[in-house]
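Changelog entry: the Energy-coupling factor transporter transmembrane protein EcfT record was regenerated in this release. Current contents:
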Amino acid sequence: MDLLRSLPLGLYLEQPQTWLHKLDPRVKIAWLMSFLTSYTFANNPWRILLVALLIIFTLIARIPRRVWKQQMGWLLTLALFVFLLISISPDGLGVKYQPRIPTNPQVLTQPAKVTNSHVPASTGISTEYSYILFDQGPVKVTRRSLDLAIRVSTIIFTVIYSSNLYLLTTAPEEITTAIESLMQPLRRLKVPVTEITLTLTLSLRFIPLVLEEVQNLIRSVMTRAINWKKLGLKGAVKVWIIVAERVLNNLLLRAEQMASAMMVRGFTSPNEHQVQWHELRLKARDWLAIAILTLFWGARLVLGNLA
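Regenerated structure tokens:
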């Protein structure tokens, strides 16, 4: 088990440098927010299109297969499992409506007539509506359960993988620099923008350390070949409490070492010791990405709205 490779949290692909790496981080934030917000109040075809676009972006960016194969595979498997589970689950609309008796008694004796002026009788097109799409034995799929299954499964993939793709192609320093640039207007309201971005930078750098500590302690437990059945539930809980305590102690030690390193270098406040990691400047490819983003939102407003 290698948590640093299997989990998509805080990972950054340094090599090879794809065209996604070279985009301005502010533009990539705009695209990420567009994926996360355009999903709201959208129809199912648009939600499926977002999933397809994320997969297409990964492929045309020529990100190595070894990087995205496992993560995308697990996410697609999870989304498919959620889709199947929700589609066959009860939709919560088990209400049976009693039809009203017509006031005219002759209607009960007259044969029903179905007319549709828009569909000719010779076309042979059926105008019947069926709420239940599939019903075989214990498996029943309705229109509402299918709609809910598409919504939940697509939002799981879109939210997780869009964030993963952004972290995969954007360095932590670029993320914080872009956020600080976008938050500059908040300085007028006396918001500590620099302190917030510094905290975010340290947090992103700390995530791999957390995964490394958890991975090392889990490996140490596995190498001891503990007989969990012999320990029982109470003994197993005690072991994992000891492991959790050790993880916390190690993380606090790492945080103290990081603070000591900053103090040794004379760091007193972020305003006096600003480090310019990247120069933010929009280039031709960034303006092209912004133009495509404008078309993206135009298509969302025209095609993606709920009927």
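The CA atoms of residues 102 and 108 lie 8 Å apart.
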